[in-house]
Amino acid sequence: MSKSDPPPTYEESRQQQQQQQHGNYPYPPYGFTAQPGVYTGPGQPGIHPQAGLWQGPGYCPSAMPSMMPSFIAPGIFSSNLRDAEGISSTGIWDSMSVRHAFIRKVYLILAVQLLITTSIIAVFAFVEPVRLFVVQNPAIYWASFPVYLVTYLMLVCCEGPRRRHPWNLILLFIFTLTLSYMTGTISSYFDTKAVFLALGITAIVCIIVTIFCFQTKVDFTSCTGLLCALCVVLLVTGIITSIVLSFQYVPWLHMLYGACGAIVFTLFLAYHTQLLIGNRANSISPEEYIFGALSLYVDIVQIFIFLLHITGSSSE
């Protein structure tokens, strides 16, 4: 390999190690007549390789996508890859060490995103001129929505920008700023105490869900169909709630919708957390650290917004 050649990808490295582990001696097709002096596999006539060159019979299945990207929630996608088993523990792509480094990288990026969002929400909550400005100029909020949507779709649907450094970090930073501004604008319509109460509850929920996902044997990654159905129910409930509240404000209906949304996105947080762990039915590739951080970040922000609808009251 020359110095200018790029390093192998995660899938290429696993295939190379599988070939080294199982050797380069596949079985011949059915009906093939072995020629004298040609190796055809263990237990077959011919010249066998030296001891230690064969470590297992047959072909090792290569890593295949477990499912196609699917629309699983309003503004949330999922791209899952099933990791191949049997990777050598001494190789450069050792499964445990790579997965642990991947998890640390995802949570480091997520911590920076949440710090930015919390700081912006605090500015909108404590600085009265900023609060009044965003309340009196809702057009800025709607102008930021296309930026949020475009950057989100680029990060989720386009593998090139999502994996290419530094464009993936730049797009993620723009997305974080946009969603933080939109969240701060929504927080401006609620009382300051309600905002910080929702922040505290969100932090407690996220910690509990994360610890639970790392300890439990329940596999949320195998419940994609159920989560999609819950998203449809939440979407229909949101449309009905918006129509009813546009004519008459019903406090219990507003709180019920907020509770349903918080529960659904808490399940999504558990789902995306287990995708990072890698020891469930489905998992994401260690190269997809941007997608992992993006998924968790959107889930946490959505939980906060729905909890805010429960704890807060609209300002006059």
Short description:
This protein has helices spanning 10-22, 95-126, 128-136, 138-157, 159-163, 167-187, 192-215, 224-247, 251-277, 289-311, and strands at residues 70-73, 76-78.
List the helices and strands and how they pair.
Blueprint: H1 10-22, E1 70-73, E2 76-78, H2 95-126, H3 128-136, H4 138-157, H5 159-163, H6 167-187, H7 192-215, H8 224-247, H9 251-277, H10 289-311
Antiparallel strand pairs: 1-2
Helix pairs in contact: 2-6, 2-10, 4-6, 6-10, 7-9, 7-10, 8-9, 9-10
Question: What would you note in describing this structure?
Answer:
The protein is mainly α. It has one domain. The protein has helices at 10-22, 95-126, 128-136, 138-157, 159-163, 167-187, 192-215, 224-247, 251-277, 289-311; strands at 70-73, 76-78. Strands 1-2 form a two-stranded antiparallel ribbon. Strand 1 and strand 2 (76-78) form a beta hairpin. The chain is globular. Pfam families: Bax1-I (PF01027).
